[in-house]
Amino acid sequence: QVQLQESGPGLVKPSQTLSLTCTVSDDSITTNPYTWSWIRQPPGKGLEWIGYIAYSGNTYYSPSLKIRTSISRDTFWNLFTLRLSSVTPEDTAVYYCARRGATMTYDAWGQGTQVTVSS
């Protein structure tokens, strides 16, 4: 059964770049037809999709975050990384990585990691 695990700093200063890694086990991030997403949930709000990297390496980002977002991958270590630049306190959230398959549903999630943006 595939497992996803987020890692990264829990505290980021305003204007800096948030960087998180999702390490995947028991599946390859190059397996067709999966996409690998980053999703966040700000306090008191719903889930917000940030973007994904597909099995092919193609990426797609939320239009509202696109200018600040970059998702990349390391196929050797089987992980993918989120970078969100110029963060503000509004980027404070629990960040999740998740897998989506051909059914277009998220069938595997990481446990989530809290990121707080504060000076």
Helices and strands in order:
Elements: E1 3-7, E2 11-12, E3 18-25, E4 35-41, E5 48-54, E6 59-61, E7 69-74, E8 79-84, E9 93-100, E10 106-109, E11 113-117
Which class best fits the helix and strand makeup? mainly beta
Poorly predicted tracts of residues: none
Name the overall outline: globular
- Whole-number radius of gyration? 13 Å
> How far apart are the termini?
39 Å
Oligomer: single chain
Helical content stands at under 10%
Main sheet characteristics: 7 strands, mixed
Please state roughly what percent of the residues sit in beta strands, choosing from under 5%, 5-15%, 15-25%, 25-35%, 35-45% or over 45%.
Answer: over 45%
Q: What's the order of the H and E elements? A: EEEEEEEEEEE
Describe this structure in words.
It is a single chain. With 119 residues, the chain is mainly beta. Helices cover 0% and strands 51% of the residues. It is built from no helices and eleven strands. The chain has strands spanning 3-7, 11-12, 18-25, 35-41, 48-54, 59-61, 69-74, 79-84, 93-100, 106-109, 113-117. Strands 2, 4, 5, 6, 9, 10 and 11 form a seven-stranded mixed sheet that branches. The chain is globular. The mean pLDDT is 96.
What's a concise summary of this model?
With 119 residues, the chain is mostly beta strands.
Pick out its properties.
four-stranded antiparallel sheet; seven-stranded mixed sheet; 119 residues; 0% helix; mainly beta; single chain
